[in-house]
Amino acid sequence: MKKILLPVVALMAFGASAQTHFTEDFNAAGAALTGWTATDVDGDGQNWYGEDFSGYFPELEAGTAISRSWTGQTGALSPNNFLTSGAIDLTSASGTNLFLQFSAGTIEGAPYHAEEYNVYLTTSLDPATIASATAVFNEILPSDGMFSHSVDVSAFAGQTVYLTFRHFNTFDMNTLLIDNISIKNLQDDDAAVAGVSLARYAAVSTNNTLSVEVKNVGGNDITSLEINWNDGTDHIQTINQTITPGSTVSVDHPDAVSAAVAEEKNITVTISQVNGNADADPSNNDGAAKFNTVSSILQKNVVIEEGTGTWCGWCPRGAVAMDYMVATYPTQFIGVAVHNGDPMTVTEYDNGADISGFPGANVDRAILGASVSQAAFETFYNDRKDLVVPAGIDATTSVSGNDVTIDVAATFVTPFAAADYRLAVVMVEDHVTGTTSGYNQANYYAGNGSGAMGGYESLPDPVPAADMVYDHVGRALLGGYDGQAGSVPAVITDGAVANYTFNYTVPATSTFYNMHAVALLIDQSNGEIVNAAQVALSQAGIAEGNSIELNVYPNPATDNLTVAFEAQNDDYTVSITDLSGRVVSTNTYANLSGAQSINVAVDGLNTGNYMLSVSTANASFNKMVSIK
């Protein structure tokens, strides 16, 4: 399951000049949906209820009405659930431009999004009478996400009615959400700025499109808009665009936004006219955006924090996806496993990440509660790896015993008059094992009933702790989840460097050489990770002459692998581990020195990805390999 966020835009409150006859946002209704009558007509014991779904959709706030066609406890359902309001007095409503507006949607993606529902306005509370009435609206949800609807109900002006949402004609999907309901007489020509979208950072002398999310909150179709964006200079254009009542459309302004040097712009956006007339309610016509041009294009590293737990039977999917990304994109991908409800949990990290559906993921903390799979992670990575960033991140480490010092530097390539950034470090450990039952990994892929999953389909449910090795484990937050206050100054010039030193003591329960530090630059205005870097503690704890660069070929391999490296007068173990952590091949070579070329037979291994390790008593050097 996943959370969908609004785009990174400046959201503006809508005005309230229309005559409103009824509203419901369910924030005060609670789980029992106080003020509404919920009827389980099909008698399966599953009915409408209220829950906070703002983690998935922030615009839903504290309460949402929910009906299910599947639950983890019951499995598939065929709902016939009615949710009916109390009496709604429309006796004073005008018969012109009277609209029912609401949001409906689901958290679940394809193919489990197709929830069907009807909406009724009736003078009866009886479910049978309601079902026989003509619905004012019907929908089968076309995808996941939330959708806003505006239905002309002018024919009901002058009556006292009941509003009903009926979830029915659906089998084995997941969740229907209803929220933000109103019945109101709308103004004729009324547009609202629902958001402004503009690249946050861009190269100098490039044209960038400013888009305005325009919602028609009036009763007439919008056919033209006069929109101005201002950065000290007006850019006024009349734009022909059709927007039906209740709909929101992204409108591109014809004038591009650019700057010839690295600078910061605060841009205001205003709708001044609708259909050639003054907007009926100017209080909702403004938006804003921040825009910075950069003097240099820097590498953007993508951070995926994957929510997982040993209790979670689908979470092996996340482990397989993370290993694939690390092996395939070692330069710009950084992965951290944020554990929940198991012995590897860091409570502060788990609470900060706030992932409610497992497995789930936060991508740069810009996409929250995202879906988890190899394909999804690759898509997120490709969508974000080329984003323009305002700073590069460097991290170096030094050690004294188990005490580690991490020096983090952010070098900025654009100015800020009032920046709000912080530096932080996440300590991450690979090859984590345990002996207690809490390290057993639940595995719903056992028996291959759910298809191949990196070897987990051949393992039992649960996988015993003795057979599990956990990688990418988030072990500690330095500076807190949001970052260290005061680590980045507010006033920043192009070329300025912000430095902060973090300290960490590797606990006796962790292995020094399996740990690395992930340095983050976090934008406090939205909580997003702007850029990141990682450094292995082994780079500080091993003399330069003792580090190993592995050359493994052919990769992918069919029959044999050749492992080439420069040995340093030591005993070496060459092992191959599958993605569940099971060692499938291991050989030890005593007192190696100089150039080595070791042949490893792999013809007996199943097709898939494996971790090849060359290790000494003090360090381990790894490389992902593929067997075909």
Description:
The protein has 628 residues and is mainly beta. It has 4 domains: 19-185, Jelly Rolls, CATH 2.60.120.200; 191-294, Sandwich (Immunoglobulin-like), CATH 2.60.40.10; 302-541, Immunoglobulin-like; 548-627, Immunoglobulin-like, CATH 2.60.40.3080. It contains 5 helices and 39 strands. Strands 1, 3, 4, 9, 12 and 14 form a 6-stranded antiparallel sheet that branches. α2 crosses α4. The longest helix has 13 residues, at 316-328. It is globular. The two termini are 32 Å apart. 43% of the residues are buried. The model is unreliable at 1-16 and 541-546 (pLDDT under 50).
Briefly say what this structure is:
The protein is mainly beta. It is 7% helix and 44% strand.
- Helical content class: under 10%
How many strand elements? 39
Note the overall shape: globular
Radius of gyration: 28 Å
Number of domains: 4
Which class of secondary structure composition applies to the elements?
Answer: mainly beta
